[in-house]
Automatic annotation (TrEMBL):
The family this protein is said to belong to: Belongs to the bacterial solute-binding protein 5 family.
Lineage top rank: taxon: Bacteria
Keywords noted in UniProt: Signal, Transport
Ranges for domain Solute-binding protein family: 78-450
SUPFAM superfamilies per UniProt: Periplasmic binding protein-like II
Gene3D superfamilies cross-referenced by the UniProt entry: Dipeptide-binding Protein, Domain 3, Periplasmic binding protein-like II
Residues in the signal sequence: 1-32
Protein name as catalogued: Peptide ABC transporter substrate-binding protein
InterPro entries found in the cross-reference section: Peptide/Ni-bd, SBP_5, SBP_5_dom
Amino acid sequence: MKFSPISQHSVSRKGRLLLALTSILLCGTALAQERGGTLTVGLSYDIDTLNVYSTGYLGDVQATVVEGLVAPDRNANYVPVLATTVPTIKNGGIKLSADGKQMSITYKLRRNVKWSDGAPFTSADVKFTWEAIKNPKFIAESKDGSEDVSSIDTPDPYTAVVNYKRVAPDFASTLFTFGIFPKHALEGKDLNTDVYNEKPLGTGPFKVKEFRRGQYVIVERNPLYWRKDSKGIQLPYLDQIVFKIIPDSNTLVTQLKSGEIQMTPSVPYAQVTQLDALPNMTIVKNNVLSWQHLDFNFKGPEALRDLNVRQAFAYAINKSAISKALGGFPKAIDTVVVPVFSASNRNVTKYPYNPAKAKALLDAAGYKPGPDGIRVKNGQRMSYKILVQAGRANDEIAQQVIISSLKAVGIELQPDNKTGVAFREARYKGGYDVFYSGWITSADPVYSVFFKTGGVNNGQGFSNPRIDSLLDRAENTLDPTVQRSALMDFQAELMKVLPTIPITTNLSVIAVTNKLGNFVPNPTNMTNFVNTSSWYLKK
């Protein structure tokens, strides 16, 4: 959904690798977990909605309130949540049709789970979630996976049989992982306008107490939460989590230093050293399934639809300089499938930093330097707007390096930075000339959402029949060999036609108070808040 090079059969191998990569864990050292207290978290982005299927951002807050049937753990292996097991072919949870072109997945659900209003959670909620998301009237950030389901059977309150039109290796990272809707509260309601979007009802460890747009969200303990610790004590331990919305990175760091906030999942790289020196703070470096990219708008300036121009951009960008400007934390890459995945293709067409080659390509394409050094063709200056999310210090620093690199070959880039809903709308609708940002994926990424014709995150309007075909092949099989082969070919083709320039991999830097126990980072787009029930504050 919000973001499968690795099939269900090989996730455990990848998980072991990720365990090695995310080795810095912050665990409690107290003899026993202590109950109570409020954790204050600083988020670097505004929140558009608390409906996890509608938001254009990561669902940090939402992950504390709503739960899915399964979720990825710290090793990017799927574990059961509202389901009792993760379905596989081996355990009988996944069954293929006789012709091998369709499949059904049976979820056995936990008993005695209640919504935070006291109503029972049942298989009817699972079926309703699918029906609500696929409803054409519902405007969702992504309906990924809903169109693949033909029907859902609910033979009893604790069994949901999901019948798929195709073989869907990405089933665990789409429809029922990010959250389940409560049928009893939402049936017959308009999901676009219902109060659920500001105060979602969930089965998670917390429930929303207050949401002030642009300011904060307070979630408080859900007294009906189903999970207990090993001693039989009902979770969660914390009384509250306060999420403060602080888009300005300098303010975020100042509040960390003063103790006004005790945690942020996104420390600007430039601030790591000084925060690491604070005696009451721990810096957690978390390798995430994410990469930075520069996208071209194929619906925008004509020059950007010229492959020679896109290649010139690629040769002009100094990725090493970007990495250095960001403290060396991110590493330069040549493909969109990050190196942790076995399907990452190291033999794609590469574009090493070479400004002379960039200039030669632009010369050959007919773009000649004008009086001010900016290239011109047929009266059109090579002057474009570059979009990043305002207030994200790492992205704004990288943006300046890119602007400088392009200016050196005669291309002018002007910052057009936006935040909140304006940024989201520009990203999804292609309201930019070029766009620099990052994508973070699930443990089983679905690259069609980014690069297939009409993909939900394909705001740039890129379309390529061969790319479409290769992604269809990769995302319609449970055979890891077939899947890997298709993804290798997909990357090779993508880097030839170059709709996007992969820039660096990402390392998220999390600052967290030493008083927080049982915190473990998560490398996926389910966010670091996917399992907050066991977190506690030491007295």
